[in-house]
Amino acid sequence: MTTRTRSTFAPPVPEARRWLDGVTLPDDMPLINVSQAAPVEPPPPAMRAAMAEALHATQTHLYGPVLGLPALREELAAQWSAHYGGTATPDQVAITSGCNQAFAATITALCTEGDEVILPTPWYFNHKMWLDMSGVSAVALPTGDDLIPDAGAAQALITSKTRAIVLVTPNNPGGVEYPADTLAAFFALARAQGIKLIIDETYRDFDSRTAPPHTLLSDPVWDDTLIQLYSFSKAYRLTGHRVGAIIANARLLDEVEKFLDTVAICAPQLGQIAALWGLQNLSGWLADERREILDRRAAIYEAMPMIADKGWRLMGCGAYFAYLEHPFAESSATLAPKLVREIGVLALPGTMFAPMDDPAGHRQFRVAFANVDRVGIAALFTRLATLDWPLASPDPAA
């Protein structure tokens, strides 16, 4: 008998950390860790001061409303409406214990065992893991060399069991920013097929575009089709406080409430208070954070010539991620632990973001650069350029 947890794979980030066991790097080659997309710095001092003050309030230490603090739901609805040029109301907002829980709650509210959900590949591994553990089939939608999914290709995968299509933009793991026309095409497809379009916008605050990434919220009945997911973790360095959000139809959130009440009762109060304070006070600080991430993105492009002439290819780059295709004969799953031992780089192989039988994943690596500055990025590419592993045979069809 296979249990729900045994139906899926081991969590990739803890697995990758085990590659460090027994490895001693020389002093002149410190570890460059590009394995995880989580800020390692604490929230800014002003936010920490506000959090410290909140610790004196009794309510901070008690259960809160299952769907989140009313003030936070109201503020996020207002800012979401302004950003996307549409209308979201507080009853269309639920606050969750992180964006992973937002996804889990949404899928639980939408799907039952045997249903199907379409995921573009490379996919975010925790999305695949939750579908596995829910008894829901993840239907892979290959994206090709540009990592942009195609609505026409998705249409061919829709069956009577399909309940939703999931998109992540800016993308994890690929870094690409989906064009507004792409999102509009998927929205139209989902509406025509009577299924949901789930857009995970965890990294929206680091999108390089100044205009809103889409105008879907301006549709007067957007909530018959669209579900948006968000995380405060990346924007305000609140990863340990677990605060995420769902923006969706209020009736769907009635179902989500059942899941949240059963699993966690409510998102942590202190994290919600911090998220609200951040929304109201840190727009300038967040703009500076975005500029820094965009500069690191630029540094990736500037460093690419060091390895491009050795056969590497940059498939996507944006927000926290660069997605690279390597030129070597061995699988990225085999090469990833060797990167640690030989050049002191911890990165995740593409096999962690793709079906087991997908050959593309074996040629790819994800680089999470949010915690690596320009100097670190230059060092990373300098080390990658030293690799002299056996190369893959040329593709005769190329």
Keywords:
single chain, 398 residues, 14 helices, four-stranded antiparallel beta sheet, Aspartate Aminotransferase, domain 2, seven-stranded mixed beta sheet, alpha/beta, Aspartate Aminotransferase, domain 1
Fold and architecture overview:
There is one protein chain. Helices cover 38% and strands 15% of the residues. The chain contains 14 helices and 13 strands. The chain has helices at 12-17, 45-54, 70-84, 99-110, 125-134, 151-155, 180-193, 233-236, 250-263, 269-281, 283-303, 305-308, 332-343, 374-385; strands at 32-33, 93-96, 116-121, 137-142, 162-168, 196-200, 226-231, 244-247, 313-318, 321-325, 345-346, 348-349, 364-368. The protein has a seven-stranded mixed beta sheet with strand order 2-8-7-6-5-3-4, sandwiched between helices. Strand 9 (313-318) and strand 10 (321-325) form a beta hairpin. Helix 2 crosses helix 10 (269-281), helix 3 runs parallel beside helix 10 (269-281) and helix 4 runs parallel beside helix 5. The longest helix is centred in the C-terminal third of the chain and has 21 residues, at 283-303. The protein is globular, with a radius of gyration of 21 Å. The mean pLDDT is 96.
